[in-house]
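Catalogue entry: protein
Contents: sequence, fold tokens
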Amino acid sequence: MNSDSEYPIPNRPEHFALNVAAPLAMVEWYTRNLQMKVKRQGGPPTHTTFIGDVTGNIMLELFCNTNFPMLDLRQLHPMTLHLAIMTDDIAGTKRALLEVGAAVAEDITKIPTGDKVLMMRDPWGFALQFVQRSSPMLVQTHFRAEHVAFNVSDSRAQAQWHQTHFGMRVKREGGAPTFGMFIADTNEHMMLELYQNSQHPMLDLPKVSYMAVHIASMVPDVALTRKKLLAVGATIAEDLTTTPGGDTILMLRDPWGLPIQFVKRVESMLEPRGE
């Protein structure tokens, strides 16, 4: 049995990754229209590119690896998986993005909390939710990436596991039947939204390739992270490796199958900001 003193594991959210057919075109679109900036870019065949949001708190990793399956983003329901971005002008954001190839998946609505919410798809079909909060859960910045959302089978149990082992904090919790949980890392760089909506499809996470989609965090000791998390229900998707650049990488799945990558960089692409 592990003692409570072993947790939480020090970590800092680093990126959300998608394996896509046209990473370079997507990078150009996101940098041009959502104020994202290239942090690192690789060459062919994968063209792996990390782009940071306007605040430098989190990155989106886009790459094309044909050795692994890709999610059919156009067919994936927006409530199955989406990336949420803060805006201080939701109507203006809608108009601007429609002019550059985005499409509306669900038009602007005002939810009971007073937030305005808009669901769009980028030109490649990936679901982007734009939120204008009445009471922001993170520091408000136009086009700040706010959260990555997954429709899951047991949002409360999964959120509790991430709270216990990574020190994530509940920023907002909804009631039945969806039990929506917004949980942020200690220094509030980014949130993970977990909810259980039986009206919409769920990804079969244990069967989804970790190279199709994953979230990633930086940790000071990847091997120790591996040891600790395997003891509390995580499983190995891809064991410890070292990249040609010297980064240490580990791919695990949480007990519900969500792929989580842990990395220790030789040179961080993000600023420490409180760690």
In short: The chain is about 15% helix and 35% strand.
